[in-house]
Amino acid sequence: MKTTEASLPSDVTVAALNLRLHAGEVLQIVDVRNGGEFAGARIAGAKHLPLAELAARHHELEGKSPVVFVCQRGQRSACARDQLTRLGWAGVASMTGGMNAWSNAKLPVEKDAWAPWALDRQVRVAAGGLVLLGVSLGHFVHPLFFGLSAFVGAGLVFAGVTDWCGMGLLLARAPWNRRRS
User: Fold this and answer.
1) Pair 69, 32: CB distance under 8 Å
2) Interior CA angle at 169 toward 69 and 34, to 5°?
3) Are the CB atoms for 13 and 96 separated by under 8 Å?
4) Structural domain for 42, as ranges
5) Residues 117-134: pLDDT tens digits?
6) What is the 3-class SS of 72-126, one letter each residue?
7) Residue 6 domain-assigned?
8) Is residue 57 in some structural domain?
9) Residues 25 and 77 in one domain
10) Averaged pLDDT for residues 35-55
11) What is the pTM of this model?
């Protein structure tokens, strides 16, 4: 069982984390987002460990320092915190609000020079392009192509209602969204 010297609440606000970092507290900031998201903006010094790899790679974390998980909005980091806690770790927290809250607080971020667009922006461009293609083909080629636009629209409504986006999951696996070594 891993233990830590300092204690952390299970959820840490952006302001509290920033204060702890500026006070010189030794914390392991672990970003559980995909490679493209991590490359686009991250807290300085954060370790990249995608949520899907946490169970297999948790041994890479140091057991003496508290761990604060970060994601885009706070949901994946809460899952990571719960997963690590089930594995016997103590001193594990999730940053509430994720990188969205960090950015909204105008706190500094590191960014890779080659970073791809944010995933939500890629989804908007892809969805808009498919709708435009469907309308154009429906108008100029055959009316059945209007179905493409309807399909994309239905997918966007489904994504909004369920907070699950198949297009986003596909784009996250695209080569340009994989972090380069």
Assistant:
1) yes
2) 30
3) yes
4) 11-104
5) 878 889 999 999 999 999
6) CCCHHHHHHHHHHHHCCCCCEEEECCHHHHHHHCCCCCECCCCCCCCHHHHHHHH
7) no
8) yes
9) yes
10) 93
11) 0.73
